[in-house]
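Researcher: Quick test of sequence recovery. Tokens follow.
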């Protein structure tokens, strides 16, 4: 519970690193073509998946949902680390990802939910989150501006597809 309160306090308060100069958020439409936008939005998606799944591990009573959340934390941590390493190797300075206002709101909704309604809400959030991740990674894999990152995005696509299919299956069973 302490972890959930700490996450909630950080996210809902809008806390961020001390700003020397606020950098503009790259447009999501650019994430399929420009490395900086891709890394920012794919990274924010990973942060959302990891954070929401940490809440799920703390709050869900369903072993299947908890196992799914644990897997997401592991896989999204790996994809983040791999993307950062590939970016560094390609000479691209990755921007720090930041949750959008909508993602912060969704985490707040999760923190307020409980019981079976929590599981349904968590899974309902995972489906569009993974659809968005699939769109970003698939688009960048097709037309991104840095070859090494395009290859990295292409490798992430089947993993995201598997996550999406599993989220849809779990959601269908939770209704």
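Model:
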């Amino acid at each position: 519970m302490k972890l959930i309160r700490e996450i909630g306090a950080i996210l809902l308060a809008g806390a961020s690193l001390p700003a020397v100069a606020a950098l503009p958020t790259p447009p999501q439409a650019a994430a399929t073509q420009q490395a900086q936008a891709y890394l920012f939005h794919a990274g924010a998606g990973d942060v959302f998946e990891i954070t929401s799944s940490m809440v799920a591990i703390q709050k869900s009573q369903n072993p299947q949902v908890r196992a799914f959340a644990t897997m997401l934390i592991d896989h999204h941590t790996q994809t983040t680390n791999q993307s950062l390493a590939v970016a560094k190797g390609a000479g691209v300075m990755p921007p720090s990802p930041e949750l959008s206002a909508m993602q912060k709101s969704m985490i707040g909704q999760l923190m307020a939910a409980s019981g079976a309604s929590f599981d349904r809400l968590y899974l309902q959030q995972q489906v569009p989150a993974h659809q968005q991740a699939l769109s970003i990674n698939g688009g960048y894999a097709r037309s991104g501006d840095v070859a090494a990152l395009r290859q990295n995005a292409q490798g992430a696509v089947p993993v995201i597809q598997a996550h999406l299919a599993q989220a849809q299956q779990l959601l269908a069973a939770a209704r």
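The chain has six helices and no strands.
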